[in-house]
Automatic annotation (TrEMBL):
InterPro entries: DUF2779 (IPR021301). It comes from Phenylobacterium koreense. This is DUF2779 domain-containing protein. Residues 293-416 form the DUF2779 domain. It holds the Pfam family DUF2779.
Amino acid sequence: MEHLTKSRISEYEQCEKRFWLSLHRPELAAVASGSLFSGGNQVGGLARALLPDGIAVTAIDAAAAVEQTAELVQAHPERPIFEAAFRHERVLVRADVLLPEEGGWRMIEVKSSGSVKAYQLADLATQVWAAQGAGLPLAGAAIRHVDTSFTYPGGGEYAGLFKDAEVHGELGPLIAGRADLVREAWGLALAGEPAREPGPHCSDPYECPFAAYCLQNAPAQPDYPVTLLPGVTGKKIAAQLSAAGYLDLRDVPAGAIEPPAQVRIHEATRSGIPYHARAAFAAAVGAWSFPRYYLDFETIAHVVPPWAGTRPYQAVPFQFSCHVEEAGGALTHAGFLDLSGDDPSRACAEALIDCIGDEGAIITYNVAFERGCITGLAARFPDLSDALMARAERLVDALPLVRAHYYHRDMRGSYSIKAVLPVVAPHLSYSDLEGVRDGQGAQIAYLEATAPETAPQRRDQLQAQLSSYCGLDTLAMVELVRALSA
């Protein structure tokens, strides 16, 4: 290995073992999921397109790229340079953008995130350290990230999509430590495999592709570890219990945990007897008027908004499922799904108004999400706003009722509907679904289904999978409410 790269140094900063394995045992890495869900390439392309006088370093070979960069810096000091390459102390970096400024160049690192992240500063510090070490006069450095307040006007006009965060002044301590960091990384690269226990670093800031390898030799975990206690309070209690020597929640003595919500989890886990305040749950649900509409949306949040009137990362609903329950128990289903690739918002809003009548509770599981979808549609379509907002006012939430009145130890600290369903309605199962089994899977399926190159037969298959998944979400709510009320 002739040099380290920014990515290698980033791996080292996350975990020494990941760094070593990526160098010496790359075959142990898990295969990454498909790239349909990533907007990084599109963001980078747009950042270049917005600088039409820019010129790119096209050489792939490291030495050739460094040489070409030096030539462009000298020959075109007035033009932006893309993918400029610099080598210093056996570290090779390539800068996304160099902008000419008075007194030197301004280095720009382009990111698809909506704000600046700590690890991005570390990456930029590596870039600046190497470029300055190679002799480039730098007048500034910035993270160019997506401006989430930008509203796409349509017509391919993306000026204003990015916002620059000038961070040169923040990089000093990081840059000062780069040389030592690089020496340490090289030392480890030439040594044997380091020991490192799995922990939070396995997914922060990136999911580690070697996690399965590391976990195979990790000590066996108890079936009900203290770490399953949910929320900030639960994690604090779990840390205290771990420090006291408790690993299995079943071994923690009665009375050692005080917050009522955590006590319920502890007692149900120790005894194996579910906590179920049946009468209280039934009384709360009894206040929901009929007909009852069990509603769930699926959304897509594009990094680069493709539809006029939408923003980066805005959750745009492309699908909903609605099970309608009458007072006598009769159950019907309606839904909406648009895989045309066009903006689904207007059609979704109209279908929702047609599906949900003027009376009756609209039941959700985590109401903030569904309310956000409806109010977002109302904001975009003023002529539909009154009807949509009238429905938003009727939303009720089953999730806090489950949290307050039910817990089975096999939920393992989670109140998600996918954790509750197997213990209250085992005849329904997300694992029986084909293809799409969770929200992220639904978004990936949507992107594939709307891609121009997707064959009609495959699109039909994805449509069926999406319909089954979203339909199960609302049927699961029906069964959950019925089971916990009976």
